Amino acid sequence: MDEEYDVIVLGTGLKECILSGLLSVDGLKVLHMDRNDYYGGESTSLNLIQLWKRFKGNDKPSEHLGSSKEYNVDMVPKFMMANGALVRVLIHTSVTKYLNFKAVDGSFVYNKGKIYKVPATDVEALKSTLMGLFEKRRARKFFIYVQDYAEDDPKSHEGLDLHKVTTKEVISYIQIHWHAFKEVLHIYPLYGLGELPQGFARLSAVYGGTYMLNKPECKVEFDADGKAYGVTSEGETAKCKKVVCDPSYLPDKGKYIAFVSTEAETDHPEMELKPGIDLLGPVDETFFDIYDRYEPTNNHEHDNCFISASYDATTHFESTVQDVISMYRKITGKEPDLTVDLSAASAATEDA
């Protein structure tokens, strides 16, 4: 480990693994370390044995729950928007070849004690009890407009000048969802979100990145000017020009906010979650945890440390990828090119 690297990345969360992959593709010499013996950090997927070890110490899961390997419990459950920034990064880097995805069947809302499916087609709009008669008609008209819309067919624009209408981007955005992904708005990795950081870790390894798991006490070393120059673990120090890490490796650099599944609004987050938990019906085991949320306050130009923000309470990965892009921009001084043909990618998947 006593070598010098361009970048040392601490933590194998999704953000850190995406950056590790992108930087390795750029030709930088990357060392990636994690104190845990698994990938993913706070965004990992745990089997039952790992889940019990994390939350219940030495206790073992009950046999009636089945095999431990049959479970992949996501610690930071988030949907992936089918036309979102994360999908573009996956396609751009070809990490999709390491992953399998499942379409999320629909979105649902809880209203007055009942669960309703959010309408996604003109037929569902007419059947939905969430809307009144006039709202149904407007929704149906909108869905049909989106279905029939074609960029190169002015007749489908219904007289709207798309160069002046401010909702052009919104309509185009939904249009891509509708046609390229056949009404699928969200997708999910088949074997849990922990597959995402592992996929980018493979990308980094293919381009020469070095990975070390189960490395305790990863200590960032600073020189007299306060700039990071390396990381020490188990008596060895790896030197580097820049350090990238999640907040847990430099806790004094961040800002603390507690949240559970959504950002906590009271001093009793358990009670905030109770209505949602009650909807699940009978549950064999319940785990409750509060994640620390940090925002970096350091100046990377002064200390050469590039720290990711903690995962927020949103239900998708858009803010996660935006944080990655921002960090990539600061590290390399350039913008990542994420231009992809989503329609071509979708067709290629179907042919496969």
TrEMBL record:
GO cellular component entries: cytoplasm
Protein name per the record: Guanosine nucleotide diphosphate dissociation inhibitor
Biological processes annotated in GO: protein transport; small GTPase-mediated signal transduction; vesicle-mediated transport
Family in the record: Belongs to the Rab GDI family.
Organism for this UniProt entry: Musa balbisiana (Banana)
InterPro entries recorded: FAD/NAD-bd_sf, GDP_dissociation_inhibitor, RabGDI
Any one Gene Ontology molecular-function term assigned to this protein's record: Rab GDP-dissociation inhibitor activity
PANTHER family membership: GUANOSINE NUCLEOTIDE DIPHOSPHATE DISSOCIATION INHIBITOR, RAB GDP-DISSOCIATION INHIBITOR
